[in-house]
Amino acid sequence: MAKRSSIYILSVFVPIWTFLICSFCKELSLIRKCRNIDSSYTSLSQRVKEQYDSNRRRNYFPEVKLSRNSYEDYTLNYRRQNDYGHVYPRENATILMLVRNSELEGALDSMRSLEDRFNNKYHYDWTFLNDVPFDEDFIEATTAMASGKTQYALIPSENWNRPQWINETLFEERLRAMEDEGVLYGGSKSYRNMCRFNSGFFFRQTILDNYDYYFRVEPNVEYYCDFPYDPFRIMRLKDKKYGFVISLYEYEETIPTLWHTIEEYLEANEGAILSKEDSAYAFLTDSGLVGKHYPIVEASSDYNLCHFWSNFEIGDLNFFRSDEYKNFFETLDAKGGFYYERWGDAPVHSIGVSLLLRPDEIIHFDELGYFHSPFGTCPASYAVRLDQRCRCRSNDESVIDIAPHSCLMRWWKNGSGKFFLKEK
């Protein structure tokens, strides 16, 4: 009886198991075939994509105009591949660094970055300024790092130190008050000397007398991309007087009375300088909506606090040497705001060039990638980043270009604009 039951069970379940095993094998075979097909199509798609990568990314028509303001016809043509042995003409310009002996490592980092990205082709002179003599270690190391000539100058004490007419008692009181309030560099005396020097005395240094242009460089900065052109050449050919890469808002607590002084200056010089309509005055005073953003700070004066970040600036020394700019600086300096408050050279330069130059004499170098902690700028165009070997991402948190705390879009609106068509 048990034997007959076993035979019956086997006769029922063996076909079922056989059917299930066959079905599983068929499914497994089908899965393998599908995977093989997927793999084949994936491989084929990858080959097709790679085949046209060069067309999609790099082989642009020569006349294509990207979103940039300082256009040069042959930026995207891989000139660097044929650079060997090429001699690049130079402008009458120098790279300028105000630096301490103790900042040697940061100075070398900045030099290495700029040499690799730009100056190894042009070999522009490096000019170093200090309020104390440079030591031998600094001179030896920076000379070795530079591809061009290096020169070193001691700033005269009368250009660096506090003027004798500053009320020392009031100065010390204001210094302590700003330090107690937590104002950035509010308690620093040397920082105030530096801001005043950069605002009104750097261009008076005799070592710069024979130059027309300067490129300001600070320690511990990085240049993200190869320069697609010589910015000094662009300045001369396009009659630009001042160039920048980043614009942002100033801390109002450092300049509480600066704009009041500017208003007095404008009233006293009406008719002697450009009118508000002909200058970039609107860039300094527009507080309306730009894109999605109003100014992130509500200023207590008509000044919206926008300024060009002067740790990167390329300028025409003859503009700063002009009577108009020197009169502008001396009007501000006489108020003592560099010491009683903490007026920075960035808002002073920015207000000066905005009032004394036409908007088309100021250039935004939007192809030049740059970083100075904590902010940076990176070309928005993917093609430009490829061509210029950029090591940055335009959507990185540090990239400020179109962030709410940037004034760049306000410059596009009220300054020289943002151009998308090739210039004639």
UniProtKB/TrEMBL annotation:
**Classification via Gene3D superfamilies:** Spore Coat Polysaccharide Biosynthesis Protein SpsA, Chain A
Entry keyword annotation includes Glycosyltransferase: yes
Q: Which keywords does UniProt give here?
A: Glycosyltransferase, Membrane, Signal-anchor, Transferase, Transmembrane, Transmembrane helix
Q: GO biological process annotations for this chain's record?
A: cell wall mannoprotein biosynthetic process; protein N-linked glycosylation; protein O-linked glycosylation
Q: How does it sit in the membrane?
A: Single-pass type II membrane protein
Q: Name one molecular function that GO assigns to this entry.
A: alpha-1,2-mannosyltransferase activity
Matching InterPro entries:
Glyco_trans_15, Nucleotide-diphossugar_trans
Give its localization. Answer: Membrane
Per its UniProt entry, which superkingdom is the organism in?
Eukaryota
A GO cellular component entry from the record: membrane
Does the keyword Transcription regulation feature in the UniProt annotation?
no
Q: Which PANTHER family match?
A: ALPHA-1,2 MANNOSYLTRANSFERASE KTR1, MANNOSYLTRANSFERASE KTR2-RELATED
The entry assigns this protein to a family as follows:
Belongs to the glycosyltransferase 15 family.
Q: What is this protein called?
A: YUR1-like protein
What's the name of its gene? YJL139C
